[in-house]
Fold this sequence. Notes:
The chain is 47% helix and 4% strand. It is mostly helical. Among the domains are: 2-120, Rossmann fold (3-Layer(aba) Sandwich), CATH 3.40.50; 292-469, Orthogonal Bundle (DNA Cyclobutane Dipyrimidine Photolyase, subunit A, domain 3), CATH 1.10.579. Strands 3-2-1-4-5 form a five-stranded parallel sheet, sandwiched between helices. Strand 4 (91-94), helix 5 and strand 5 (114-117) form a beta-alpha-beta unit. Helix 6 (139-148) packs across helix 11. Mean pLDDT is 95; it is low at 472-479.
Amino acid sequence: xxxxxxxxxxxxxxxxxxxxxxxxxxxxxxxxxxxxxxxxxxxxxxxxxxxxxxxxxxxxxxxxxxxxxxxxxxxxxxxxxxxxxxxxxxxxxxxxxxxxxxxxxxxxxxxxxxxxxxxxxxxxxxxxxxxxxxxxxxxxxxxxxxxxxxxxxxxxxxxxxxxxxxxxxxxxxxxxxxxxxxxxxxxxxxxxxxxxxxxxxxxxxxxxxxxxxxxxxxxxxxxxxxxxxxxxxxxxxxxxxxxxxxxxxxxxxxxxxxxxxxxxxxxxxxxxxxxxxxxxxxxxxxxxxxxxxxxxxxxxxxxxxxxxxxxxxxxxxxxxxxxxxxxxxxxxxxxxxxxxxxxxxxxxxxxxxxxxxxxxxxxxxxxxxxxxxxxxxxxxxxxxxxxxxxxxxxxxxxxxxxxxxxxxxxxxxxxxxxxxxxxxxxxxxxxxxxxxxxxxxxxxxxxxxxxxxxxxxxxxxxxxxxxxxxxxxxxxxxx
Length: 479
């Protein structure tokens, strides 16, 4: 039995390959887990993306003489039933590192012949350790160690099987047709689309998009990123495929500057593995600050301001455009994620966990490890954290990373006619220009809900107080 979880692909699937090697016939199984589908962190768009990906996978399986067997319920119960029905001798699945996944898999392994296979990361969390056997908690030495280990080559990428023999007569539920992925989501689910996007990103020699990645990845108004995060999230693309593509792109150029883009993208892929490793070794980061001294921050937690932030009604265009993009499309540019997170935590002094949860409720690529790591980084509470006194100025960030205001005008139509001079700070428009632009501040678009300079002082004081209150014995996991 091939138990599919976060590996919705046929190419370079180590769990599938292990299943084919072990038996004459293979049963591809996906279990609709109510714990995951109905959790507080569940996202309707992400669920719809998953279901679309399952339909794509089922179609690919049927072309190979197989089919996807879908069941619904608690994993141990459903797998036990399937083993009785099919007489399957073993279950193969790709390892996952979230606390819930590990508890679930321990329960299954205690009762059924489950074999867990690597593939979610290039190097499993237990492999990248310091000399004393402890895990790295700072990215740069983690990356150095990661790069010293043998890397994957093109020959290691497993081809999709031509035939997947599956026994007949095993009942399956239909893949749910609700929720549907709305047209506002700019991602088509499936392994085929993932491969097309990867090829478009890395192919083309010196003209390839990846060569411009270092220069363009922070520009919110440009298509400067790979757009592969939702596919990596569900394993429609393997980590190995992505890393091999990055290494090949780096080696394909003789120009150091051209190769820098591939180097930077590879580093981002290593960040993904770093945060998974942190979650594996320190699962409590999903509940509290990695740096315990910041567990004592006196959050303001104004619910009205949190609602305004979530609806894109803060009065700061770059923040509002990003939040509306998230709610409508299920995706947000990484630079924008940092800006809106900094605004919530360090301008409004709202607990980072509120923002982390809202992101999970909307993001197609919502992953517990990466989402938690990113929020704690911005909040200054996590590994490699931005210093507590580093507070993004939303106006300066907007001018630098959306200089012509293209992102703002796209997601905030009420500001479409505002002159460039005032687009990043519309509250500074004189009344006659507001009337001419058809945007009266306070009526058509809100006044800023907070003063940046004053908020910065308040946040620094709150963080300093938390540090002062921390006991001398408070432990910070740092190098």
